Amino acid sequence: MWLGLHRPHYVCHCAIFNFQSLLTVILLLICTCAYIGSLVPSLLDGNKTGLFAVFWKCARIGERKRPYVAVRCIVMAFSILFMQ
């Protein structure tokens, strides 16, 4: 019975509450959108406004900041593999 006396025993390990996981999700979103945008440009170029504009913007970031995104992917992979 829950009377506010005890805390639940579960812990949410969502990407929202873990900063490194949130950065990983954002970085993967940028890389995925840039890759899809290079394969099928018409898929993202038609959605410059509205909800799907987030994917178009992520694709533009991935295309314009390609060296920085690549270095960040390598650093993130190294930190996930060897630092945790």
Automatic annotation (TrEMBL):
**Residues passing through the membrane, by range:** 20-44
Protein name, per record: Protein kish
Task: Give the CC-aspect GO terms.
Answer: Golgi membrane
Annotated membrane topology is: Single-pass type I membrane protein
Q: Which Pfam family is one of this chain's hits?
A: DUF1242
Organism expressing this protein natively: Nyctereutes procyonoides (Raccoon dog)
Keyword list, A-Z:
Golgi apparatus, Membrane, Signal, Transmembrane, Transmembrane helix
Biological function: Involved in the early part of the secretory pathway.
* Compartments in which it is found: Golgi apparatus membrane
Q: Which family would the database say this protein is a member of?
A: Belongs to the KISH family.
